[in-house]
Specification:
alpha/beta; 7-stranded parallel sheet; about 20% strand; 13 strands; about 375 residues
Length: about 375
């Protein structure tokens, strides 16, 4: 009889789609999965098809919108508690994104699992306070393995107060592989002008993409404000692209007002992009500005580097792995520097693109599934 593996995570998120597609076919487990982002209508159809093809028994979890209601957090945790109770004993529990809701919901079931694996994404470590982290302690103490995306996260963990610093000793640095590299290469020879026309972008301008969704943490409005005094000669050369999936209506109106006053051609991407569309989008982006508040190691940024984009990154996001491997990209320490930096890159665009050529092979060597898959599979042994 097959061993049972219970996955808990947001299966509407691309990370879970990526992970299951590239790991589950290589292991011999009966797989049950709890979707922490609610019922199945939150999950893209292509993701659901992949989960079905990989024989993943997907279970609807509690709706995160419960948090907005009275006693919402308690109700969310109780619903999760009930679902886990119904599933019964499993051999391995693997949690993707370590939340305090899970820490409390699983408190009475830890003995049901022979092995517990915790995978931090980044914001579940960086954007949480000490009280939040304390609520995850039962999980951390019981875990056999804890995976962190970068060495920087491990160093951050070591600096936390006892017992977190002690628990960090059983953590390993292991990121998800990136599944878009193959698709990016598939379209690499396509005409960039034709791809831009396909998306409705201006084929004759330098495409500058800001962030990868519309959440406040992307700081897209801060980037727009930083470009207010950009010289007209630069404004005329560029088109700003804003992926704004997940933006609230109020923020969308404010962003559009800012952009209309900026007098630079722009385009808003409001819908979900599948693998093929995302890969094409990476290729047609000349410059990618990455300025979110916190991050472990952005897959979007890695894909941009792999595709040949010039990346401009906020240096409060420390990526020692990139620096150690001599990846070529630009950094800025505050938004007041962004205007001059962008102008310099635009004026030297062809030369800068040439300097980015070596990034492809470096990124592939440190973040492809072919280099990381066996390390993930070993966790289930």
């Amino acid at each position: 009889m097959k061993k049972k593996l219970l996955l808990i995570g947001s299966f509407s998120n691309f990370h879970m789609y990526n992970y299951t597609k590239n790991i589950i076919p290589y292991i011999d487990f009966e797989v049950i999965a709890i979707n922490t982002s609610g019922d199945f209508n939150t999950i893209p159809e292509s993701f659901l098809t992949s989960y079905k093809e990989n024989n993943i028994h997907l279970v609807s979890g509690p709706d995160p919108r419960m948090f907005e209601r009275k006693m919402g957090k308690i109700r969310y945790r109780f619903k999760l508690f009930q679902i886990i109770k119904q599933i019964g004993k499993v051999d391995i529990l693997h949690i993707h994104y370590v939340s305090n809701a899970l820490g409390l919901s699983l408190l009475f079931f830890l003995s049901r699992f022979h092995k517990i694996i915790l995978t931090y994404w980044g914001s579940d470590l960086y954007r949480t306070g000490l009280f939040y982290k304390i609520q995850t302690l039962p999980l951390l103490i019981s875990a056999s393995n804890i995976t962190l995306v970068t060495e920087d996260m491990k160093e951050y963990y070591k600096k936390l107060p006892y017992p977190f610093c002690k628990i960090s000793l059983k953590s390993i640095v292991l990121d998800y592989g990136d599944m878009l590299y193959y698709t990016i290469d598939k379209y690499r020879q396509d005409s960039i002008k034709l791809l831009r026309k396909e998306f409705g972008f201006n084929p004759n301008k330098i495409v500058v993409t800001i962030g990868y969704n519309g959440r406040k943490q992307m700081q897209q409005k801060e980037v727009v404000h930083a470009l207010l005094n950009l010289p007209n000669v630069i404004r005329d050369k560029i088109q700003l692209i804003f992926p704004i999936l997940f933006i609230c209506q109020e923020d969308k109106i404010e962003l559009k007002t800012q952009l209309d006053n900026l007098d630079i051609e722009y385009y808003l991407i409001e819908s979900f992009l599948d693998e093929n569309r995302i890969s094409k989008f990476r290729l047609l982006t000349d410059i990618f500005i990455h300025s979110q508040t916190t991050d472990a190691l952005s897959n979007t940024m890695l894909e941009a580097l792999y595709a040949g984009s010039i990346v401009i990154n906020g240096n409060w996001l420390e990526y020692s792995a990139l620096n150690k491997n001599n990846v070529y990209y630009f950094s800025f320490s505050n938004f007041s520097e962004l205007e001059a930096l962008l102008a310099n890159v635009v004026n030297d665009i062809d030369h800068q693109k040439l300097l980015c050529k070596n990034n492809k092979s470096i990124i592939e060597s440190i973040s492809s599934w072919s280099s990381l898959r066996n390390k993930w599979i070993d966790l289930y042994k």
